[in-house]
Amino acid sequence: AIKNPGTKQARAAKQVKASFRIAMTGTPIENRLSDLWSLFDFLNQGLLGSASEFTKFIKRMQENEASYARLKTVVAPFILRRSKADKSVIADLPDKIEMKTFAQLTKKQAMLYNNLVNDIQVKLETTGEGMERKGLILSSLMKLKQICNHPDQYMGQQVYSSEESGKFLRLGEICESIYEKRERVLVFTQFREITDHLNQFLETVFHHRGLVLHGETPVKKRKEIVDRFQGKEYIPYLVLSIKAGGVGLNLTAANHVIHFDRWWNPAVENQATDRAFRIGQNKNVIVHKFITKGTIEEKIDALIEEKVKISKEIIPDMQEKWITEFGNQQLMDLFKLT
User: Fold this and answer.
1) Predicted model pTM
2) H/E stretch holding 193
């Protein structure tokens, strides 16, 4: 809650007088390195310099990867890390198996995707710098993600035929196997507007009704949904918007997790996965991260992997805004189908 040093609650927390301070967090670096700076500004003010000094240090680090080791060396004595995957911490927690699950674009998706990329290229050449350009890039990313999910999501239609989406077809294959085992699955998406359509499709696969939870679900009803899903009645699936259902819920009745579309922030995705992979889980948790081959989804997944390799804990900005700093040619290489 104090990762953003500019918020009132962060400033208030740092004014509390204390002889000893502890910060507890599952994600010390959620979006950017300044998260870590803010925590240490509370814990041990001055250790990482001022905010401006730390920003300059980050820029130097990005030019010289060896500098990441220096930062780790400085903060390591103050960090006690405990991971659920460490058997010495929790001996009886099952394994978590993560995999990338690839889907192909259908002909309709490929046509829409190519048309949009051509349109973006024209607009990039005629758009000025600054906020206008950043707005164009971020809106383009969203539209490309929608096409990768389903053509009807991008076009604003309500049919959602499974044959028109490679992801829907892949989702059906995986969930048929889950249904045969009478196991349960969590399906996460960042888009509220697609949750009901995923629900309708999954009902045809499982021959059972599931549940849906998103930002517009009343707080009282959320507890009812969780209790039903965790109960003895066989509720095979729960569709969740990742922002509403990605934190704070205990959903260990499921041992499968599907990220239908990617948030492109590993910390957010991991928090969502941990709704099932937590104390109380007694089965191995299988995690599928959907990626549409040849599209921006595959390319950004590769970019993020490269960033994570730089350092397992100290990573640059993982929000989509860093893509807005790309040059036009870099952007077109990212957008184009391959």
Assistant:
1) 0.79
2) none
